[in-house]
Design brief:
The structure holds 2 protein chains of 2 kinds.
Chain A (H helix, E strand, L loop, with lengths): L2 H47 L2 H6 L3 E2 L6 E2 L2 H32 L2 H16 L2 H19 L9 H25 L3 H9 L4 H30 L2 H7 L16 H10 L7 H30 L6
Antiparallel strand pairs in A: 1-2
Helix pairs in contact in A: 1-11, 3-6, 3-8, 4-6, 5-6, 5-9, 6-8, 6-9, 7-8, 8-11, 10-11
Chain B lengths: L2 H7 L7 H37 L5 H5 L12 H32 L4 H13 L4 H15 L6 H25 L3 H9 L4 H29 L3 H5 L20 H9 L4 H32 L6
The chains are: A mainly alpha, B mainly alpha.
């Protein structure tokens, strides 16, 4: 083979490889577009039978029991209630843990504690659901809430809190460690105690990252399925009482697909409408978290 | 009153050190308590599962099939299903993830397209797993006609872990020193030859660790598989491309949801098997990392 021909073959081969690599890189975009198209098309079919107004503003959800009603508000309210209970647990614990890891712990202690936090992050969510029904619910019933039933938003919120705690702890720790050491030293040199330095210098400087971690944790809590399904049950009532059994958006999606619901039925189509609502909510939260990180990054450098 | 006397009676600067240090100590205590509560929760969780489930863990449980009588039940179909699922999805996600990461790191740095692809991947990482289940149901099960099979489940979970694989591979590739690439280019290598001969071998430990950890995450997933038709009562070993299948998390769910103590006990036993599998994968990730990086030095 002449040199020119070899070069030609090589160039062709390089081009083919680049094309293959480009195709793998575009799988992600195809997935995103695919998810949006699937949700949009099926939700549109659902809206032919149930008006969007009824879906978005209705306060009764009864997809399985006649008379059917498809008002999504009870599912959204239950989802948010559980997410807020989860944050009420995960924000204080996660932030304090992050401060400890970033500001107080020695390198050795941190190297020991971080893998344990990652262990918690790696436990499958179904296991935390199991924990909710075997430990958390009975413990609540035995101590503070004797009237608690087997399913409750409270028990679900507590285990989801444990589930998102590592998100807050780990991302907030990163944000605090990214604060330049000179800021801390300046504060200490002015006579501030280490607590005052954390409260008035490090924490405000890391605030955007901390907020981003909390919103990301909220997004995880909203999308969480198995722990919530096992702990909160499948009772789609509109309530703000955390002791009640409720049904989240994710739990409804699982309930429909577990049963023998025919795929052409209105119930099955409602699954996609609820999925679209869930997708829109988590996407909004993720974008907000992303924006916070971008918007306030590098302010102190 | 003289200036000196006033300064002595009304000090302008009041350090109040005792109080300030006390609030610092209280805060430090709160931090320690937060860590303690978190660790305690993990300990209680593991203790509860092991005390409940360990008594049933024997060879019969590992080789048996689900039964209406808890004492006779086993997890063989679910265990084999999880293994098949893990291998299938690694085979699918590995080339796609590494290919995408190589493209983003080595071929199109700092272009608008590159930024779009990266943002998209970051956003995909935040999509709830159940939404992937809905997508897999519509695309693989229905549109492509794969049916409720383990293969459709593996494709769905491959898409789910793809962002994680891409992000960890990109980090591994970025950690390869530029001098390695420059040396290869200086020897006349083409771009692909640089990638295959210099970049990928040097990034291999990080890439392999990333894919194994992503596999571990997928093996613990439950929700998307319920949409892809994982069945709760399978008494035979699953065939990847045909017929019903089940996996460990689904088995855990179906027993836990029966709310009878005997079934909850074997649910805990199934959790022990699942956790053991995950620990094994994590150990494998460490071993692979150590072995692959033994010959690397720069």
């Amino acid at each position: 083979m002449t040199g020119a021909a070899a070069r030609g073959t090589r160039r062709w081969r390089e081009g083919a490889i680049e094309a293959v690599l480009f195709l793998s890189a575009s799988v992600g975009v195809v997935t995103t577009v695919g998810i949006i198209v699937v949700l949009a098309v099926e939700t549109f079919e659902f809206f032919v039978q149930v008006s969007p107004l009824e879906f978005l503003t209705g306060s009764v959800w009864s997809a399985m029991i006649r008379p059917y009603a498809f008002g999504v508000i009870p599912l959204v309210v239950s989802t948010l209630m559980i997410a807020l209970i989860a944050l009420a647990i995960a924000v204080p614990l996660g932030l304090l843990a992050a401060v400890y890891l970033a500001e107080y712990a020695s390198t050795r202690t941190r190297d020991m504690l971080k893998p344990i936090l990652e262990l918690l992050a790696g436990i499958p969510t179904i296991v935390l659901g199991f924990f909710a029904i075997t430990v958390v619910s009975p413990a609540l019933k035995a101590t503070v809430l004797p009237s608690l039933g087997p399913f409750s938003a409270l028990a679900a919120g507590i285990v989801v809190g444990l589930l998102v705690l590592p998100v807050i702890a780990s991302l907030s720790e990163d944000a605090m460690r990214a604060v330049p050491r000179t800021l801390r030293e300046g504060s200490l040199a002015l006579g501030a105690t280490s607590f005052e330095t954390i409260r008035k210098v490090v924490f405000p400087a890391a605030l955007s990252g901390v907020m981003a971690s909390i919103i990301l944790a909220m997004s995880r809590a909203v999308g969480e399925t198995m722990a919530v399904l096992l702990a909160a049950g499948t009772n789609p009532t509109l309530t703000l009482d955390p002791r009640d059994s409720v049904q989240t958006m994710t739990a409804f999606i699982v309930q429909v697909s577990l049963g023998d619901t025919p795929q052409q039925s209105i119930q099955f189509k409602s699954l996609f409408a609820v999925g679209a609502t869930l997708f829109a909510m988590t996407l909004a939260l993720n974008l907000l978290s992303d924006w916070l990180v971008r918007r306030f990054r590098n302010v102190y450098e | 009153m003289s200036v000196l006397a006033r300064a002595a009676t009304t000090p302008r600067f009041e350090p109040a050190l005792m109080r300030r240090r006390l609030s610092g100590t209280i805060f430090y205590g709160a931090c320690l308590a937060a860590i303690g509560i978190t660790l305690l929760a993990i300990v209680i969780l593991l203790y509860d599962i092991f005390t409940r489930g360990l008594t049933h863990l024997d060879l019969n449980f590992l080789t048996g099939v689900p039964s209406r009588i808890p004492a006779r039940a086993g997890v063989a179909p679910a265990f084999v299903g999880s293994l098949q699922l893990g291998i299938l999805l690694a085979v699918i996600a590995f080339p796609l993830g590494v290919g995408a990461a190589v493209y983003l790191e080595e071929y199109t740095r700092a272009s608008r397209l590159n930024r779009l692809l990266r943002t998209n991947i970051a956003n995909l990482a935040g999509v709830p797993s159940i939404v992937y289940g809905i997508f897999g149901l519509a695309l693989f099960v229905r549109a492509l006609g794969l049916g409720y099979t383990l293969f459709a489940a593996a494709l769905t979970l491959a898409l789910l872990i793809l962002p994680v694989v891409i992000i960890s591979t990109m980090e591994a590739i970025r950690a390869v020193p530029a001098s390695q690439r420059e040396a290869a280019y200086a020897l006349g290598a083409t771009r692909w030859q640089v990638v295959r001969g210099a970049v990928l071998p040097a990034a291999a430990p990080g890439i392999m660790t990333g894919i194994i950890l992503a596999m571990a995450r997928a093996i613990g997933e439950t929700a998307p598989l319920i949409l892809i038709g994982a069945v709760t009562f399978v008494t035979y070993l699953p065939q990847p491309f045909d017929g019903g299948y089940t996996v460990l998390p689904i088995q855990v769910y179906s027993w836990a949801a029966r709310f009878q103590p005997a079934f909850q006990e074997i649910s805990a036993t199934a959790i022990i098997v699942l956790l053991a599998l995950l620990v094994l994968l994590n150990v494998l990730a460490i071993v692979v990392r150590v072995r692959l990086s033994r010959h690397l030095q720069w």
